[in-house]
Design goal:
The chain is an alpha/beta fold. The protein contains ten helices and six strands; from the N terminus they run βαβββααβαβαααααα. Strands 2-1-3-4-5-6 form a six-stranded mixed beta sheet, with helices on both faces. Strand 3 (41-43) and strand 4 (48-54) form a beta hairpin. The protein starts with 5 loop residues before the first strand and ends with a helix.
């Protein structure tokens, strides 16, 4: 997937960081430069906006309150906004209180509606920008298996099959098999048969019939 072509727009005011040159050295990356209204890097038509903050710049931006306005503007502009924090948090040369920094990071991660990523240095930032651009433009690039464990004995294989049904976890799968004995019987059971099984509710039954047809 890494050899696929992507375009990343870099804010023209980011030239001092050298990030545009780092991105150009990555195979398949086309770098565009323009003055962006918000965010330091974008991918797609208002799809992804990335605001990069070196750790010391982040601390100052938090204390001055600038970062909050930047986040709100990015949220209004892009479908997805990422705050990319670059560097070692332990090396911050600022008077910011640790509680204030932790509070900001927690707020971004849980309450702000934007995504939070961390990079170790500028090269890592370039690699992450490339990876995000690939995901925006080309998707994941491979299928993720829904279930990774591969049982070997018959009873586990039967449970594994039934757990593949929507709303059915290990406990429900065992309950269904205890009542109906085989996956075939579970898959072909009538609504009345399923309704008679304790622990299998009407919403689960309706969903099963919707999927199984």
């Amino acid at each position: 997937m890494t050899n696929k072509l992507v375009s990343i727009t870099v804010d023209s005011r980011e030239t001092r960081s050298g990030m545009a040159d780092r991105l150009r050295r990555i195979s398949g990356v086309t770098v565009l430069q323009e003055e962006l209204e918000c965010a330091d890097y974008t991918v797609g038509e208002a799809t992804l906006g990335v605001e990069r903050k070196e750790v010391n710049d982040l601390a100052i931006s938090i204390m001055e309150g600038r970062i909050f306005g930047q986040i709100e503007m990015c949220k209004a502009t892009y479908q997805t906004t990422v705050i990319l924090v670059e560097g070692d948090m332990r090396q911050i040369r600022s008077a910011i209180a640790p509680e204030a920094l932790d509070g900001f990071l927690s707020w971004v991660a849980l309450l702000s509606g934007v995504q939070l990523l961390h990079s170790t240095d500028a090269n890592h930032t370039a690699a992450l920008l490339h990876r995000m651009a690939l995901h925006v433009c080309h998707g994941l690039g491979y299928e993720i298996p829904l279930r990774t464990e591969k049982p070997k004995d018959i009873s586990s294989i039967r449970q594994y099959l039934v757990e593949g049904l929507p709303g059915i976890g290990p406990t429900s799968a065992k309950t269904l098999l205890a009542a109906l004995n085989t996956p075939r019987a579970v898959f072909s059971a009538t609504q009345d048969e399923l309704a008679s099984i304790k622990g299998i509710g009407p919403k689960t039954i309706a969903r099963l019939f919707e999927v199984l047809g």
